[in-house]
Amino acid sequence: MATMDDDSSTVTAVLQWLEGFPDGSLVPPACVVKRLRGAVALFDGNGTATVPVAERPPPACSWRERIWTVLGDTRLGVPEVCEVLGKSRDAVYRLTSEKLARQAMATGHTDPRLPHRKGHDGSLVFVASELRQWIEAHEEQVVRPPALFNERLKAVGE
User: Fold this and answer.
1) Distance between CA atoms of residues 139 and 88, nearest Å
2) How many CA atoms are closer than 13 Å to the CA of 57, on its beta-carbon side?
C-alpha cells in the first residue's frame, strides 16, 4: 500500500506516492486532488516557490474506501480486510473458520464465511471482487431511498 511521507507538499512526493501503487490500481481522484493541491499551493502564479505553510498532510485513503475502486483481482491480506470491515483481526479469522460454516449448515443456512484463499505460506488471501460481493450480500438496507431519488438516478443513467 502506498503511503505519503511527511513531506507530501512537493510534486516529487506526490509522484513518488502515485508510483507506489501497483499497475492497474484505481486511485480515488479525491486522494490525488488533496495531494496535488498541497503541491500546487507552494507555487504562486509566476511559477516561483512560496514558503510552505506548516500543515498536517491529509489522511491517506483507507481500504474502507479503496475496496470499491481497486481492480477486482486485487489481493488483500488480513490487515486490509480488518480495515475494510471495521473488525478486529480475531473477528476476520472467525469469519473464515470452518466452525462458522458447520454451525450455519447445521441450521440450514448458507455458508456465511468470508470468501478467502490460503497463500503458499498459509496466510489468508482475499480477492477484492469477492469481498465486495460478500459485503453487499451481507448488508441490510434499513431505509430505502425515496422514489423521487430513484427516478433521478434512472434519468441520469439513461
Assistant:
1) 18
2) 19
Cα dihedral 70, 74, 77, 83, rounded to 10, equals 10
Cell numbers 510552505 correspond to: 52
What's the sign of the alpha-carbon dihedral 50, 51, 57, 58? negative
Q: Answer whether 74's CB lies under 8 Å from 66's CB.
A: no
Distance CA 105, CA 113 (A): 11
The pLDDT assigned to 6 comes to 44
Q: How far apart are CA 62 and CA 67, in angstroms?
A: 9
* pLDDT mean by block of 10 residues, the chain; 158 residues: 51 73 72 72 57 58 88 94 95 90 82 89 94 90 72 62
What is the reported pTM?
0.54
